[in-house]
Design brief:
The protein is α+β, with helices and mostly antiparallel strands. About 45% of the residues lie in helices and about 20% in strands. A hairpin with a 7-residue loop joins strand 15 and strand 16 (about 285-290).
């Protein structure tokens, strides 16, 4: 069921983006009197799942979910329909229109994706606002995972700066972003009452962006151990523990923080332990004996950081959400440009960052959360716009590149040249799609065999 939810979110998101992108081409084409022969969600080699003729346009859904297309009369595109190009140009054909009109038609798709991305970001902020944990409120500092320890962080540190940027919102992704994208090579922390600067080696840009590490946390907020969720009929519930019980000690050893509890029970499996427990609203501490299971767990989850620390919430009115959503989109695109720059420098490996449908789908999560769904859709819309603008024939950016050449030089590339260039571009794009999804398959195989 979890997999179906992930797939459903991915398909719905891509369908929305593809249809609106193609409408970005369709509407200006029709406005300039250009005939559109087909409008398809997904590709339809040999057959389609659905099609209906309305006027001069065939609308349909293909079976190959690698994108979508509008087939515009008199245009050399991925359909490679060269037969129509052998006849004399007709007034309703793309090739008969002035260069500036063709340029608008070709830019229509990415324009819609850019506007849509900014708009969805704005509407997410309008509907849900922003909630975050101010770093200064996490007074116990950080609880470091193994990757964070390798980086040089220690449990109890309070992060002050990443490079020269103050660490204001508690989020370990700010460290990743600073190192991998902003090229930060120092982290300033407060440790044992004094400031300490941790130097970051260049290798960490590569390490932190590896696919195997994408789900690894560097740290979380250090918190006391209060039960947030207890599994039904689990060891904790059977022992009488309840939600909001605070765990203060293990076998007589004080465990004021959750990480200290984890250290205290490490390696203990199928054994009984004695916990010092204080219930909510009670001042007394009682002893509770719990039998840990074969995995060394008592089947509970700790309360989240916001249970202990005050978060900050920013509400946006409709008019306020528009510039805030625009700024969020601009920052996201800026990060994409910087990431590409780091790839060209060799600091980030392309094969580690590249992913296909499985990688994209995993970012939606296994639960259908509308806020996350729309946020991901906005991000994908901007990524699609950015990628489509790459000057590769067969993509919108390739067509725009040749049209700009025509506008500047006054000379139109020959149909034969356009056919060959489009074929080369199509092979490049198809190769990238195969590579991205092939990497996903290889990672899945490695994960299955424990590689």
């Amino acid at each position: 069921m979890d997999t179906l939810i992930t797939i459903g979110q991915l398909v719905l998101s891509l369908s929305i983006l593809i249809v609106l992108h193609e409408f970005g081409h369709f509407l200006p084409a029709r406005f300039f009197g250009t005939r559109v022969e087909k409008f398809y969600l997904f590709f339809d080699p040999y057959f389609s799942l659905f099609k209906k003729q309305i006027g001069e346009t065939e609308y349909g859904i293909g079976w190959l979910p690698l994108g979508g297309y509008v087939k515009i009369s008199g245009m050399i595109d991925e359909s490679f329909d060269t037969e129509q190009m052998e006849s004399e140009p007709q007034p309703w054909e793309f090739r008969s229109k002035p260069a500036w009109q063709r340029l608008i038609i070709m830019l229509g798709g990415v324009t819609v994706n850019f506007i849509l991305g900014f708009l969805i970001y704005a509407m997410v902020l309008f509907a849900w606002g922003e909630e975050y944990l101010p770093a200064e409120n996490a007074v116990a500092g950080i609880a470091v995972d193994s990757l964070g320890q390798e980086l040089g962080l220690m449990t109890g540190d309070m992060v002050l700066k990443v490079g020269n940027v103050p660490f204001e919102r508690f989020n370990d992704r700010a460290i990743l972003r600073g190192i991998a994208i902003d090229n930060a090579r120092q982290i300033t922390v407060k440790r044992d009452g004094s400031e300490k600067v941790i130097d970051v080696d260049n290798k960490w840009a590569d390490i932190l962006t590896r696919h195997d590490n994408k789900s690894e946390r560097l740290f979380s907020a250090r918190t006391p151990f209060t039960i947030g969720v207890a599994a039904k009929d689990g060891p904790a519930e059977k022992a009488g523990l309840k939600v909001e019980d605070a765990i203060l000690s293990v076998n007589g050893t004080p465990t004021p923080y959750y990480d200290l509890y984890q250290d205290a029970v490490k390696g203990i499996k199928n054994q009984e332990i004695t916990l010092g427990v204080k219930s909510k609203g009670s001042e007394s501490v009682r002893e509770v004996k719990v039998m840990l299971n074969e995995k060394g767990m008592m089947r509970v989850a700790p309360a989240p950081p916001e249970y202990f620390y005050d978060t900050k919430r920013i509400e946006y009115g409709f008019l306020e959400s528009i510039p805030a959503g625009y700024n969020q989109g601009v920052n996201f695109l800026g990060d994409q440009f910087k990431a590409f720059g780091e790839m060209f420098k060799g600091n980030i490996k392309v094969t580690e960052s590249l992913g296909g449908f499985a990688s994209i789908g995993s970012m939606f999560g296994k639960q259908w959360i509308w806020e996350r769904f729309w946020y991901m859709t906005a991000s994908l819309s901007l990524i699609l716009a950015f990628m489509n603008l790459l000057p590769i024939p067969a993509l919108d950016g390739g067509h725009v590149m040749f049209l700009l050449y025509e506008v500047v030089s006054g000379r139109k590339p020959s149909d034969t040249f356009m056919e060959r260039a489009t074929m080369v571009g199509f092979v490049i794009v198809l190769g990238l799609v195969v590579l991205a999804n092939g990497l996903d398959i290889w990672r899945g195989i490695k994960g299955f065999f424990g590689g």
